[in-house]
Amino acid sequence: MHIIISLTVSFLAVFGLVVIAFVGVWGAHLEWLFGVVIPYLAAITFFVGIVYRVIQWGKSPVPFRIPSTCGQQKTLPWIKRSYVDKLDNPFTTGGVVCRMILEVLCFRSLFRNTRLEFGDGKEIKYKSAKWLWLGAMAFHYTFLVVILRHLRFFTEPMPFFVKIIENVDGFFQFFLPTVYQSGLLLGAAVTFLLLRRIIDGKLRYISLPADYFPLFMILGLVTTGVLTRYVFKADVVSIKELTMGLVAFHPVIPEGISVIFYIHLFLVSVFFAYFPFSKLTHMAGVFLSPTRNVSNNTRVVRHINPWNYPVKVHTYEAYEDEFREKMKDAGLPVDKE
Ligand code: HEM
Q1: What's the pTM value of the predicted model, to 2 decimals?
Q2: Each residue of 53-86: pLDDT tens digit?
Q3: 152 within ligand 1 shell (Cβ under 6 A)
Q4: Are residues 35 and 253 in contact, defined by beta-carbon separation less than 8 angstroms?
Q5: 193 vs 20: CA distance, rounded Å
Q6: What domains are defined for the chain?
Q7: Which of 144, 145, 116, 142 is nearest to 128 (CA)?
Q8: If you measure from the C-alpha of residue 188 to the centroid of ligand 1, how many angstroms do you get, rounded to a whole number?
Q9: Which of the residues 71, 178, 261, 284 could staple to 89 if both were Cys, CB 3.0 to 4.6 A apart?
């Protein structure tokens, strides 16, 4: 039952946002609010929120190494370490950097994800599970490409790499305007990630509106983006005037921009404002994750808690001095007679 509630609440929340933007622009002509005020507020919330979260994480004490449990730690010279151990359990900063690069660019820990299965009911088996990794890679890389392509709305002249990405992404020109595969693949990847949560019973059990909402939100972004480009064929020249006005802090609302663009922009704004307070901030958090960003040299360097203060302790010797006679009477062994 809770899945139906979570799904409905998340879907209705996104649908409600679409209705708000539609009524606001089409009915009430609040183009300034949806085209300028809300995007600015969202951008401020995004940057302030991310900086706040990173500062909070940065202030959290990490007095000790959190050794990764995978891989052989560097120890006595005759205990061998393979190159995988050096990545899993890096001893040097160079090793940590390599681990982080592979984590961020290739989602290495997700690649090593396993699935637990009960064989024929008697034994537990761990099986390789690569679909999530594949879906996550497709999702994140297509998202990145879509965002980079959007730079054409915010730059003049457009950076050379955006043109290259556009050419590669729009390689199959079977439609006008050119179909960008990354946008469609992004939609497919989000749908896969959503269905995975709905179909798999174990995942369904642990999924909350906070998991469904971002997925519906991104689906909403892709759908409205695709509609803007391919169905309503919005006036890109006027849209660029608006977006360039926003980045130059000389906001303008040109005539003739269709409502679908404002709906897309409103969803983007809510998405960015929501970002720092949601699980989506893992984007910034990965760099502050102690299991990823510290080297494991605990057998070579003694790490002392920097804010250790002298603690008045009751040593065992003092305890025994205090209770020796009583311990003897009770027949308990004592160190000193
Ligand atoms: C999280 C951020 C965003 C996502 C995921 C997103 C996604 C998309 C997608 C998938 C498309 C379909 C075409 C394509 O593949 O490029 C699209 C189109 C479009 N998006 Fe976005 N978008 C985002 C942010 C923005 C922003 C900030 C703006 C402008 C202020 C914007 C304006 C547009 C416009 C004007 C189109 C139509 C493009 C055209 O006709 O060439 N989008 N968006």
Answers
A1: 0.87
A2: 999 998 888 877 876 678 888 889 999 999 889 8
A3: no
A4: yes
A5: 27
A6: 2-329 (1.20.950.20)
A7: 116
A8: 16
A9: 71
